[in-house]
Design brief:
Elements: E1 3-6, E2 9-12, E3 21-24, E4 31-34, H1 47-53
Antiparallel strand pairs: 1-2, 3-4
Length: about 60
């Protein structure tokens, strides 16, 4: 697996399909899959609910 140095952090290059984890959305209760292992005790959202909960983007100018 190779990494790129980007903005001081390390990003994984695409090395094949990601392992997906089945979840139940903490907001609407829908079943979905996420590309990370959820942390117990923290909410996890489906794609639609995640968009509602994420902070607004700030332009970098």
């Amino acid at each position: 697996m190779s990494y790129d140095n980007y903005g001081g952090g390390r990003r994984r290059r695409d090395s094949g399909p990601r392992e997906m984890h089945k979840i139940k959305c903490s907001d609407c209760g829908a079943e979905a899959e996420v590309p990370f292992k959820p942390t117990e005790g923290r909410p996890v959202y489906c794609r639609d609910c995640f968009q509602k909960h994420r902070p607004p983007r700030r332009d970098r100018f």
